[in-house]
Amino acid sequence: LVDALSDQGALAIERVRLVEDLDRAERAAETDRLRQALLTSISHDLRTPLAAVLGAATTLRDLDDALDGTEKADLLATVIAESERLNRFIANLLDMTRLEAGAVVPNVALHDVAEVADTALRRMDKILAAHRVAVEIAKDLPPLRLDPVLFEQVLVNLLDNAGKYAPEGSTIRLLGRREGMRVLIEVLDEGDGLPEADRERVFDTFYRVAKADSVRAGTGLGLPISRGFIEAMGGTVTGANRRDRAGAAFTIALPVPAEPARTASERAA
Ligand code: ADP
């Protein structure tokens, strides 16, 4: 009997091993598929702007004499805009790699949200010129523990998306308010919003909501990077649709820092 049992035991172990091997093979195949999709996507994102730069530069060289001043300026503008796009994409890829390697260590200190938001808005003025921007940040917000460089980048990403996915002339709202022991910073737009099934997936690396028009240049990296940065500062970022009207609503929540313990000399004062 003991022999029979141990035979069965051996069989069961063998079966577990087979299943594990199968699992491993499936996981490896899935990883391979993902890596392949990733490479295709990255190659496409690099080649599209590069092709535009090459095209414009070649035209400038070959047709120099035949071009008037405006045409030359347009071609140069294309070279610059597409190079900037490449630059952003590569910066995003590096951010993503650093996040995945756990190499993003926020440099946290107490900062005024309104001030950081101001810097972000100034960086965005060209892109946002096509929209109305309404900023409503409560005056009495407590300073928050954040890394201003990372936080500003997150605001830029969210505002940039609002600019890209909402129609020209519409209003983008940047709100800041306290809710209990958290401060909420929201970016609201008047675009199509997020399909219900995509509300979480938009935070996946390289995920982009399927759209008929692929004119809106994007990489699918802005939101996952934003979430990574904010989580590294102890906060959260979520995406939803607005309740008051059509449009997307992205919300950053950061904890209100605990009152600093007063030092003995402060207590004595
Ligand atoms: P990117 O904008 O470069 O594609 P993101 O990671 O910033 O990458 O966003 C991922 C996807 O989420 C976008 O491709 C878009 O489909 C969707 N999305 C992001 N922001 C908005 C928004 N404000 N309104 C509608 N859809 C959005």
From TrEMBL:
Descriptive protein name: histidine kinase
Q: Which residues form the Histidine kinase domain?
A: 41-258
Q: Which organism is it from?
A: Methylobacterium cerastii
Q: Which residues of the full protein are shown?
A: 641 to 909 of 909
Localization: Membrane
Q: Which domain of life is it from?
A: Bacteria
